[in-house]
Design brief:
Blueprint lengths: L18 H4 L6 E6 L14 H9 L5 E2 L4 E2 L5 E3 L10 H17 L3 E6 L5 H11 L3 E6 L19 H5 L5 E6 L4 H9 L5 E2 L9 H6 L4 E7 L21 H14 L1 E8 L8 H20 L3
Parallel strand pairs: 1-4, 1-5, 5-10, 6-7, 6-9, 7-8, 9-10
Antiparallel strand pairs: 2-3
Helix pairs in contact: 2-9, 3-4, 8-9
Length: 295
């Protein structure tokens, strides 16, 4: 078997990559699955998101037609799922932070697959302490700016409020928020890029100008329109299309350095299997943009 192992795909690895392209030590990219969803309130099941994305990714074409190259060449390793902490969302954030910190110390570009959006805080906190001139690009249907929700400050509805305490955030795709969040935005002079005015009103140049040199991207999949992404816990009509999100991400990658990203809130049971494949392809595309779009 060892004589042909380099020819075989590995179903447990992102994109089914064989050992020579998925070895942890030699890979520049590391996929960190985080199967956690303790603060979701409508459709639960985002804990199954990472496994579903990785399974779907095994059916990706390794060659990217847009970038005209096979994107795995820098090496993409896949870790086992990060064991959830059920004590509290804050404790889970600390566990994600510790894992991300360790990966960054080893020079890895982290692709974190969720799970609910609350997990992003731990990863972003680790990045903010390691990377200078750093900001976050949030693609999301919801503002996630509540100070506290359902008895915790660290749930999925509060994640960006916590992130703003450590670094700047540019919000794109927002089309739903509470009165509390609206008042917070006004009081603090925040300028989200709302989808309420239509996708054609999003100005990529203004979005890019708002970002620092080094950018972490957090993508809540409900930023996409439910017509192509039904498999989320809290869908909102009027979202971005496939070409919209790719055009924005490539534009960012061409002008800024993407240092890592997460993809969260896939709830596989709420939509067709095509949603998991879309998420897997989006992750692969963003890996490609992060390393090759500026070349």
């Amino acid at each position: 078997m060892s004589r042909i192992s380099h020819l075989l795909s590995q179903p447990g690895n992102f994109a089914g990559l064989p050992p020579q392209y998925s070895d942890y030590k030699s890979s520049r990219v590391t996929v960190l699955p985080v199967p956690y969803d303790s603060t979701t309130e409508w459709h639960s099941g985002t804990r199954n998101g990472p496994r579903s994305i990785i399974e779907a990714s095994c059916y990706l074409e390794w060659f990217d037609l847009e970038l005209e190259r096979e994107l795995y060449s820098m090496g993409i390793s896949t870790l086992p799922g990060l064991e959830p902490v059920l004590d509290s969302p804050e404790a889970m954030a600390r566990r994600v932070y510790s894992a991300a910190e360790a990966l960054l110390d080893e020079g890895k570009f982290i692709v974190m697959l969720g799970g609910e959006h609350s997990i992003s805080y731990g990863s972003i906190r680790a990045y903010s302490q390691k990377i200078p001139n750093f900001s976050v690009l949030q693609l999301d249907a919801h503002a996630d700016l509540r100070d506290q929700y359902l008895g915790t400050k660290y749930g999925h509805g509060c994640v960006i409020r916590r992130v703003l305490e450590i670094c700047p955030v540019t919000q794109v795709g927002i089309r739903s928020m509470s009165l509390e969040e609206h008042e917070f935005v006004k009081a603090n002079g925040l300028t989200p890029f709302f989808m309420e005015h239509g996708r054609d009103k999003l100005c990529y140049a203004d979005i890019i100008d708002s970002l620092s040199e080094n950018v972490y991207i957090t993508i809540d999949l409900d930023v996409l329109d439910p017509s192509i992404m039904a498999a989320v816990g809290t869908p909102e009509p009027g979202g971005m299309g496939w070409s919209d999100i790719l055009s924005l991400l490539r534009a960012v990658a061409e002008k800024r350095k993407i240092v890592g990203f997460d993809l969260v809130e896939l709830c596989p049971g709420q939509g067709p299997s095509s949603c998991s494949f879309l998420a897997a392809k989006l992750a692969y595309k963003l890996i490609g943009y992060s390393f090759f779009a500026g070349n």
